[in-house]
Structure formats: structure tokens, C-alpha cells
Write a structure and sequence with these properties.
Elements (H helix, E strand, L loop, with lengths): L4 E2 L2 E4 L6 H12 L4 E5 H6 L10 E5 L5 E14 L6 H6 L6 H14 L9 E9 L4
Parallel strand pairs: 2-4
Antiparallel strand pairs: 1-2, 3-6, 4-5, 5-6
Amino acid sequence: MAFLVINGLRSIEFGTPGESRNRFIDLIINGNKRATAGLMVEYISEVEPIEYVGEKLAVIDNDLNQVATIVATRVEVCRFADVTDEFPLAEAEGDLNADEFRSGHFKYWTDLGFDITDDTVLVLMYFDLLPSH
């Protein structure tokens, strides 16, 4: 799905629709999830620009409603094999190091039909949750 613009902000979806998305939104709003990873191939196929530091994004739920606003604080492009231990801790999905991240995300993305190798290019975005108004 191409990104939507909501309240003047580019939208961002976390996980796959359904319970996965609900869980990630809860981790952002009520937890400490402050990073996310995406496949470069998805950015290319959806003709979507990579987020940039300072960009504010509308977090949308399963019904495409804005439920939070985040701001990108750091954006990195790296190989799947080069994800460091720092990233999964910021992602806060339960992985405690890069090996656990690679194992879980390899399964997640291959289950979605993507061919994941050490050289698969990822976009890692760190972000802060902005206060709701």
C-alpha cells in the first residue's frame, strides 16, 4: 500500500494488519519501542522515500486512523548481517541482541515471501514518540 498523508504528515504502519499492528502500537504508546526496521526493496517497490531525521510521521492503526505521532531521530541503511546489538534493544520487540533480531526478522520476512540474505538492505529508523495534543 502506498503511504497516506494524514493531518499533513506521511503515515507509517507497523507490522502486518491485525494483532501484530495492535501489539506494535501498544509498544510505541505504552512501552519503549523507539526503532523500526524496513526492507529497502519495499521502499523501492512502493516508490516511498526513506524517512529523514526530523521527519514527523503519523502512526496509523488497522483502520487507517492516526493514533500517535513520531519523529525520526536517526536513520541508517545497512545490510541484514550488519545490524548491531543496539538496534533490537531500541526496537523493543523482545530481541536482546542482533542474532535474535536476525533470527526473528528472517522468519517474519520470509513468511511474508521475501528472500532474505546477509546482503538484504534494511532501513533502520530510530524515533521518539511525540506528546499527543
